[in-house]
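Notes from the 1:1 (GR / supervisor)

We went over the backlog. Supervisor wanted to see one worked example end to end before approving the batch request, so GR pasted a single chain during the call. The sequence is below; no edits were made to it. Supervisor asked that the structure be written out right there so they could see what the output format looks like.
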Amino acid sequence: MRFLTTVLTGDGTQVREELEAVDVQALHAQLHRQGMTLLRAKALDAESSAALVDVELKPRRLLLLTQALAEALEAGVPLLSTFQAVAEQEEDDRIVTLLQDVAARIEAGQSLSDAMASHPQAFPSVFCALVRAGEQSGSLPKVLYSIAGFLEWRLEISGIVKQAMVYPLIVATAGYGMMLFLLSFVIPRLGSVLSKIGTELPAASRMLIGVSAFVSTNVLTVILVSVAAAVGTVFALRTRVAREAVGRVMAALPVLRHVVGTLAIAQFCRTFGVLLQAGLTMTHALELAAASVSSPRFRDDIDAVRQRILGGERLVDVAADVELLPPVALSMVQVGEEAGRLPITFERLSRLYDREVKAAVKRALGLMEPIVTVLLGIVVGGIAVLVVTTIYSAMKGLGR
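Structure output shown during the call:
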């Protein structure tokens, strides 16, 4: 069993480290033979370690923590005090334990990046790589400010995309509710009247009445299945496979293709620029930047660029061959690569495509609103036409 211990050494120094022993008594005896005294010991069993590994920090919590660390280091406040202060303000016990564990690892001698890397769900690989680069270059506060700006940008873009999806979802939900009402309440009553008349109806009308009879009989089941399907879709979209599948579908749709492409370019330029400014090599920065891009096709293109750069080719030449960036961006990259100013170039490109993403989302939203409305009108209108046709056929047969 492993223990997180506080040990008093022979010269009176207190040291925190992880040690392994059968139990606390064996740990006491082991340290006593080495001339040291055990002050405190906390068991780090597999269950608690697994629980810590599974703790996830939401983007906004990670942003607040990063800003607090940057401000503390800039003001000369020790990291341990910062983690303790943030933990005291946290209400989630699991996150408090996570922060305490990171602080304990730092106190035991680990670097900040290594302590964070022990919790991959809370601190992504890109985040840890940037922190490690800042520690190695001695510019950790500056790097943390860059990370905070990057996280803030991602939250802003995510908010824009979510806001763009609100209207289509509301309209689709309202349309589904209207269809359910027609199928479960209106059409069954019409079907009962027509069945008494006994008139021969068209095949489409008979199918509509049959579907409405099933829905009205099992309306509660239909509603529960619909809710379960919606909840299942939300949870499925949290998986990488489902997100990539949705990304490929969206990239193939005419209205959304430009938005997905522009968003991928903006994500790449922002991430790649921050990584280069932190001092990472180009190939390592490309590897991490690819992991942060949501578009699978764009991610494959970045991997192809990285492989060819490892073979000795220039970034601008390879990016032009695989059409990674638009011509205007490629011309800026060429000038920046020749002048040795790629970090600044990609920082400017990120600002440019930030504006492009917002404009593209607004244009797509302006197109999606009438499209969704027309589709809803076609579906509901189609049902209404079938209902009118059914009534007309019944009255025509009755007239005969």
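Supervisor's comment: The beta strands are 2-8, 14-20, 37-43.
Batch request approved.
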